[in-house]
Structures are given as structure tokens and as C-alpha cells.
Specification:
By secondary structure, the protein is of the alpha/beta class. About 50% of the residues lie in helices and about 15% in strands. The protein has a 6-stranded mixed β-sheet with strand order 7-6-8-9-10-12, sandwiched between helices. It has a 4-stranded parallel β-sheet with strand order 2-1-3-4, with helices on one face. This is Xylose operon regulatory protein. Keywords: DNA-binding, Transcription, Transcription regulation.
Length: about 375
């Protein structure tokens, strides 16, 4: 009888991102040899568990958030894959979200809504928050827009300082120019911004549009108003971590170089559902595209809707949005195709019908032109199927 390998998962279960990691690990186990999994109750950044010193398993996948955890894992001598951005354990393989792409999606999402002022609300304790801030700031400044930033300092994490931090966020929000789009480094921080906006009677999204990260569906739905969020591919991250650990347990050489997993897109909800565009005709055209892009519309349909000439529309649209109306229609359709490829088992024919492409072949050509990969290649990349 072949002995099952014993693998410990030092990953908390209290947030959507971590649960996505666990789901990806389960996906890998179901498609390969079964492991005996040890998943103890573990808080993020908790001290090293006592059992770790005595544990005689075969491998570990962990969010290594402290030096103490790193040292304890290192003493075991067991193969390990890190799924944290903290980098407390140099020299081991690690898998993380691509924070540059997350920031890029956030910037694009808010800039395309016409905001000229953009803000970032983050947490200086976490590397990934700092990276998201830096990438987001660079994109905002490159676009010629104003950048504003608030970050929770490392020494502000105690419960006694929570109310004082809330007051500082309130003052920051009061002082911001409006309208403004605010990118929060994760959903919990975004929810806090929404709570303070409600207390200050700041209209969301009319005065401040708020975007989070992680797409924790329960948290986003409970937020008031419902929270828009960047969707990381945590399931893919967990799958890749399990694949690397399996290779290590098989005695294969695995590069210590990190693997960055691309996010899936943005789930738009009420907190950013607005257009801060002064040109009312362009705003009307863009709103029409968003409402009808998947119904097979073309530029002539938009022209009839806004009742201006095609040449004037295209000139003003490009000046404000940076794209032609046709390019925006195609961009909206491709975004929807990506979502359906990643989250459903629909065939290409079904997806083409759902997204306004008359033929599957046209969808494939357009998708490859925009993304440099076929729909099949994209689906395999993001779902492991």
C-alpha cells in the first residue's frame, strides 16, 4: 500500500483570499495523488504553533507572515512553498498575486470613469499594500491626474488606536478634492472607507468612488453601498503552490524564483458605478456601450443614441476616453469573455453568443489580437483546465 504524503497548510481560513488559496490546493489534490492534509486553526501572523516542532510530515504550504514562523518552518527541514508576500523565508519557492497587474486594473477602472483625482488607502505593514500603492501612484501620475494617499502606520494596529485611525481617515476623506476615485489595498480597508463616508454623509460613488481588492463576495455585498473589487486568482495561486510542493516532495529541483499570478478582472458594484465625465454626450455614449456592448451594437447605434455626428462623437470620445467607440465596445466584450472563460465551463460558441460576437471565429481572432493568446490558452492559464 502506497503511503499518502502528509502536508500541513499554515493558511488562515478567515478571509476570501486565503480560502481561495485552499480551494486551489484542493483542486490540485483532486487531479493528482491524494495527500493527507493537516489544516489547523491558524490566525494570520500568529506565533508558531507548538505542534510544528514535533511534526514529521512531508511538506508545508504556508503564508509566512513573521520571522518567527519562518524560523520554525526552517528548523523542520521539510519542503515548503510560501504563499505570502512578506518574504520572511528567502531561498524557498513562493507564489503570489501580481500586484502590478492588480494596481493596473484598479487604475484603469477608475480612470475610465473619468476621475481626475485618485487616492490610495493602504496599510504600511504589508509589502503587497506598499507595492500596490507604488504601482498605482505611478500609473495615476503618468496619466496626468492628482494622487492622494493615506496609509495605516505599522504602530497603529492595536485596538486602542483603531478609533484614532478612523478619525485620521475621516480627516483625509474630508480634505480630498471631489469627485475622486479611491483604491483601497484590500476589501476590509475599503469597507472602512465606506463606513467613514457614510458617517460623514459623503455620497458614494458621486463624491468618492471606492474600489477594493479580493472580491470577498460576502463582505462586498454587505458593504453599503455594495463594494466594487479587483478579483485576484487566488485559486490559481493555491494550485500552483501545490504543484511546486509536489515536485519538491518528488525530489525535483524547483527554482526559488517567485511565481506571480495574474488577477482575473474587476467586479463592478455600486461603489464605483458612476461616470465623472464633464462631456455629457461622451458620458451618454459610454453608458450606452456598457449597457448594450454584449447585444451586438455598433458605432452607428451609439450615434443614433446620442444624436451627434459620427465624426464629432469619435473625436470627442477619443479625447476624453483615449479610445474610439469601436475600441471601447470591443474592450467591454473581451473583458466579459475573460470572465466567462475563467468562471464558467461555457463553450466558445455559447460565450460568443453571450458577448455580442456574431461568430466564434471572430471572437477567437479578436481575443488573440487583444490578449496575444487564444481563448483556450487563456482558460487553461487561469483555471488549470
Amino acid at each position: 500500500m502506497i503511503r499518502r504524503r502528509s502536508v500541513a497548510l499554515l493558511i488562515e481560513t478567515s478571509n476570501a483570499y486565503a480560502r481561495g488559496l485552499l480551494s486551489g490546493i484542493v483542486d490540485y489534490i483532486h487531479s493528482h495523488d491524494a495527500w493527507s492534509i493537516y489544516l489547523p486553526e491558524q490566525e494570520r501572523a500568529a506565533p508558531p504553533p507548538e505542534w510544528l516542532r514535533r511534526w514529521k510530515g512531508d511538506g508545508i504550504i504556508a503564508r509566512i507572515e513573521t520571522k518567527e514562523i519562518a524560523e520554525s518552518i526552517q528548523r523542520t527541514g521539510i519542503p515548503v512553498v510560501d504563499v505570502s508576500a512578506a518574504r520572511h523565508y528567502p531561498g524557498v519557492p513562493w507564489v503570489e498575486t501580481n500586484d502590478e497587474e492588480i494596481a493596473s486594473l484598479a487604475a484603469e477602472h477608475l480612470l475610465q470613469r473619468g476621475f481626475k483625482h485618485l487616492g490610495f488607502c493602504g496599510d504600511a505593514e504589508f509589502n503587497w499594500s506598499t507595492w500596490r500603492r507604488n504601482y498605482f501612484r505611478d500609473l495615476v501620475e503618468k496619466s496626468g491626474c492628482d494622487f492622494h494617499c493615506y496609509e495605516t502606520a505599522i504602530n497603529e494596529k492595536s485596538s486602542s488606536s483603531f478609533e484614532s485611525e478612523r478619525q485620521r481617515i475621516a480627516q483625509w476623506l474630508k480634505d480630498l478634492p471631489k469627485p475622486i476615485g479611491v483604491f483601497a489595498s484590500y476589501d476590509i480597508k475599503a469597507q472602512l472607507v465606506l463606513d467613514v463616508c457614510r458617517e460623514l454623509e459623503i455620497a458614494v460613488p458621486e463624491e468618492i468612488a471606492v474600489l477594493g481588492v479580493d472580491n470577498d463576495e460576502l463582505l462586498c455585498s454587505l458593504a453599503d453601498p455594495p463594494l466594487s473589487s479587483v478579483v485576484p486568482n487566488s485559486r490559481k495561486t493555491g494550485f500552483e503552490a501545490a504543484r511546486l510542493l509536489d515536485a519538491m516532495m518528488n525530489g525535483e529541483e524547483v527554482s526559488e524564483e517567485g511565481r506571480l499570478i495574474e488577477p482575473l478582472g474587476v467586479e463592478t458594484r455600486q461603489s464605483t458605478d458612476i461616470l465623472a465625465i464633464d462631456d455629457t454626450d461622451v458620458a451618454a455614449a459610454l453608458q450606452f456601450i456598457r449597457q448594450h456592448a454584449y447585444a451586438g451594437i455598433n458605432v452607428n447605434d451609439i450615434v443614433r443614441h446620442v444624436n451627434i455626428s459620427r465624426r464629432v462623437l469619435e473625436t470627442r470620445f477619443r479625447n476624453v476616453i483615449g479610445r474610439t467607440p469601436h475600441e471601447e465596445i470591443l474592450r467591454q466584450r473581451i473583458m466579459r469573455v475573460k470572465k466567462l472563460l475563467a468562471e464558467t465551463d461555457m463553450t466558445l460558441r455559447q460565450i460568443a453568443t453571450r458577448t455580442g460576437f456574431e461568430h466564434t471565429e471572430y471572437l477567437t481572432v479578436a481575443f488573440k489580437r487583444e490578449t496575444k493568446q487564444t481563448p483556450t490558452q487563456f482558460r487553461k492559464k487561469v483555471t488549470n483546465k
